């Protein structure tokens, strides 16, 4: 993730200097304001807690749609903005087919476990009668 962000920033600096300038200036300005208003110990504690608990919270608590939006926001796509529409459509179709395949596997595993539980419960009821 760090590498993708650094590559994106390098590309931004080469291609859109003013946008890079505004981004870095605003980040440094906000950091200075936060550093002035909030004690350093609280900042370190907050960053540590976010790093420790953030990924688990993002995966298990947030809805899938919001998780994917956040993932796309924090992991920028290093590809150029002039990507071919056909490639993106094909890639989207591949992503959907991959998700469908994984959901089918998960459904199959769930049904197998449920079927086993139902069969074992049925066998126990026969033994008791």
From TrEMBL:
This is RETREG1-3/ARL6IP-like N-terminal reticulon-homology domain-containing protein. It is a multi-pass membrane protein. Residues 8-72 form the RETREG1-3/ARL6IP-like N-terminal reticulon-homology domain. It holds the Pfam family RHD_RETREG1-3. GO terms for cellular component: endoplasmic reticulum; membrane. InterPro entries: RETREG1-3-like_RHD (IPR057282). Keywords: Membrane, Transmembrane, Transmembrane helix.
């Amino acid at each position: 993730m760090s590498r993708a962000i650094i590559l994106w920033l390098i590309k931004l600096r080469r291609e859109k200097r003013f946008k890079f300038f505004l981004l870095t200036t605003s980040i440094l300005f906000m950091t200075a304001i936060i550093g002035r208003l909030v004690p350093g110990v609280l900042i370190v504690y907050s960053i540590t807690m976010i790093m420790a608990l953030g990924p688990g919270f993002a995966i298990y608590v947030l809805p899938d749609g919001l998780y994917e939006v956040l993932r796309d926001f924090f992991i920028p796509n290093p590809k150029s903005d002039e990507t071919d529409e056909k490639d993106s459509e094909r890639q989207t179709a591949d992503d959907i087919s991959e998700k469908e395949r994984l959901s089918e596997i998960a459904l199959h595993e769930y049904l197998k476990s449920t079927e086993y539980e139902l069969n074992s419960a049925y066998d126990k009821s026969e033994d008791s009668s």
